[in-house]
Design goal:
The strands form six sheets. A five-stranded parallel β-sheet has the order 8-3-2-12-19, with helices on one face. The protein contains 14 helices and 22 strands. It is globular and about 65 Å long. It has 559 residues and is an alpha/beta fold. Among the domains are: 106 residues, Alpha-Beta Complex (Flavocytochrome C3, Chain A, domain 1); 97 residues, Fumarate reductase/succinate dehydrogenase flavoprotein-like, C-terminal domain (Methane Monooxygenase Hydroxylase, Chain G, domain 1), CATH 1.20.58.100. Helix 1 runs parallel beside helix 5 and helix 3 packs across helix 4. Helix 1 links the parallel strand 2 and strand 3.
Length: 559
């Protein structure tokens, strides 16, 4: 099959809430190509159970939402970004409703109907807009339906982004290549997973919305696609990366003996409905840990569970909501109820065995408040981005909100500078060098390598860290990266090989960031530095082009 060049006004890599929201809006200006490495609905968004945090309750307030977010962020939030998030929330949620999203409602005593707002850990009020326990799936459905109605949008399923197109691919030398501050993005090399051909996708504006990094860890609630692709590509291209040490481990995933690619999430909303955590002795332990008990911020709950497991030598703790009747549980949490029932657990009669699992990355590609990165014409939104809105720990259900708010802002910024003829002036890039050989025996070895990456990250760079653990992780990840990079250079490219390369790059960035932060704060807990250090109220900025910097995300600007 011949290599093609696909040119559009906008290239969107990723098909979750951030990418689809941007694509819908951008289609009003020009043509949009959406690239997704599996089916269009395969995204972290699709698996989100809880909901979208936003102020709709008349007793709630924007200021309260801001305060809760800042408290969870442990002193590292970009307050301007947080204010934008909270203030923009209601309008953006209403936009989803206008596009056809159906959220759970309730009938009030006066006969009116309003959103049925749930509550999750760290929130002072009920402000979680949800569609029972299938919020992400419902949002994804509504957005894809809207995408289908837009003639300017073309979706490329089963296409994997390999690398960004910058001036470095133009084979320039010396002074012809600008400094890292002036790198420009013109699209990406994209692999057609079906044919094995790498095509050129060129565009004056590229948005990375590739989601999270959960598959770096042995146990994760993230789907198989969450391999840190966008972050790794941006890092290789020279973009600024920050806050990679802050990995949120969801406190409650279903404990199922034997390794699964994706752990089943038991939504925080279950604790919001009053569920309590018990150890194997039937003792409630969160009462001694935090005033909010089971509704404490996720980092506190996850560490408390981790400590309880180590103290008693257990494999899991238990989440008990059996005091609620079956009808309520089946109506409020239909997915959770039936999944557990199929696993042999009747949650209306017995507690749910749960363990923490890697869930969400608070850091990522450094972005300003308009989605811009340090690479010109490259934008980012959603979990791949680091605006500073989450700080050291994300407040529950702020993630879907972040995607719609900052994708909207990225669109608004581009709208002001958009010129329809920009794509006609794109440079001519060389075709992908497809040289390489495929050796099945080596493929088996590389599969073992990636399992090693996941195990190293789980054992040494998990919920609780130490200098010794991080040093061991650094040595092992460096060795694995060398092996994988060597294999990548010599082999015929495949989607899985691209993912392996990105996983080990992402793992390296997490380890490096964790080693730099010599304190405990939010989601980063190091036993050698158990206290928070107020002199470290900033972020470690990492780039492939320079030595790490320490500064506040809010102080970074792109012109």
């Amino acid at each position: 099959m011949s290599i093609e060049v696909f040119t559009s006004d906008f290239l969107v890599i990723g098909s979750g809430i951030a990418g689809l929201t941007f694509a819908i809006k951008a289609s009003d200006l020009g043509t949009v190509h959406i690239v997704t490495k599996k089916k269009d609905f395969d995204s972290n968004t699709n698996y989100a159970q809880g909901g979208i945090a936003s102020v709709f309750d008349p007793h709630d307030s924007i200021e309260s939402h801001i305060k809760d977010t800042l408290t969870a962020g442990a002193g590292l939030c970009n307050e301007t970004a947080v204010r934008i998030l909270a203030e923009s929330g209601p309008q953006r949620v209403q936009e989803l409703i206008n596009w056809g999203a159906h959220f759970s409602t309730r009938k009030n005593p006066n006969g009116s109907v309003s959103l049925d707002l749930g509550r999750e850990g760290g929130h002072s009020y009920n402000r979680i807009v949800h569609a029972k326990d299938l919020t992400g799936q419902e949002v994804e459905r509504a957005l894809l339906d809207e995408i289908a109605r837009r003639k300017n949008i073309r979706v490329f399923e089963n296409h994997t982004a390999v690398d960004l197109l910058t001036q470095h691919q133009l084979k320039l030398t010396g002074k012809q290549i600008n400094s890292y501050n002036n790198i420009r993005c013109y699209g990406a090399y994209i692999l057609d997973n079906t044919t094995g051909v790498v095509h050129l996708f060129t565009s004056p504006y590229t948005l990375l919305a590739t989601g999270g990094i959960g598959q770096v860890y042995l146990h994760t609630t993230n789907p198989a696609i969450a391999t840190g692709d966008g972050i790794a590509m941006a890092y290789r291209a020279g973009a600024l990366i920050a806050d990679m040490e802050f990995i949120q481990f969801h406190p409650t995933s279903l404990y199922e003996p034997g390794h699964k690619e994706r752990a089943f999430l038991i939504s925080e909303a279950v604790r919001g409905e009053g569920a309590i955590l018990l150890n194997s002795r039937g003792e409630r332990f969160m009462e001694k840990v935090h005033p909010l008990k089971e509704l404490a911020p996720r980092d506190i709950v996850a560490r408390a569970i981790d400590m309880e497991l180590k103290r008693l030598g257990d494999q899991c703790v238990y989440l008990d909501i059996s005091f609620k009747d079956r009808d309520f549980l089946e109506s409020r949490f239909p997915t959770i109820y039936h999944y557990c029932l199929e696993a042999g657990i009747d949650i209306s009669k017995e507690p749910i065995p749960v363990v923490p699992a890697a869930h969400y990355l608070c850091g990522g590609i450094v972005s300003d408040l308009n989605g811009r990165t340090s690479i010109s014409n490259l934008y980012v939104s959603g979990e791949s981005a680091c605006t500073g809105v989450h700080g050291a720990n994300r407040l529950a259900s702020n993630s879907l909100l972040e995607g719609i708010v900052f994708s909207h802002r990225a669109f608004c910024h581009i709208k002001e500078i958009f010129a329809p003829d920009n794509k006609d002036a794109l440079p001519q890039f060389p075709q992908w060098d497809k040289k390489g050989t495929f050796d099945l025996e080596e493929w088996i070895l590389i599969q073992h390598n990636i399992e090693d990456v996941k195990r190293v990250m789980w054992d040494y760079v998990g919920i609780v860290r130490s200098n010794r653990r991080l040093e061991r992780a650094a040595r092992r990840i460096t060795l694995l990266e060398e092996e994988i990079q060597d294999y990548y250079r010599r082999s015929t490219i495949t989607s899985r090989l691209v993912e392996l390369r990105n996983l080990v790059t992402t793992a390296k960035l997490i380890v490096q960031s964790a080693m730099l932060r010599k304190e405990s704060r939010g989601l980063h807990y190091n036993t050698n530095y158990p206290q928070q250090d107020e002199s470290l109220n900033g972020s470690y900025i990492i780039s492939s082009q320079q030595q790490p910097l320490f500064m506040k995300i809010s102080e970074i600007s792109f012109t």
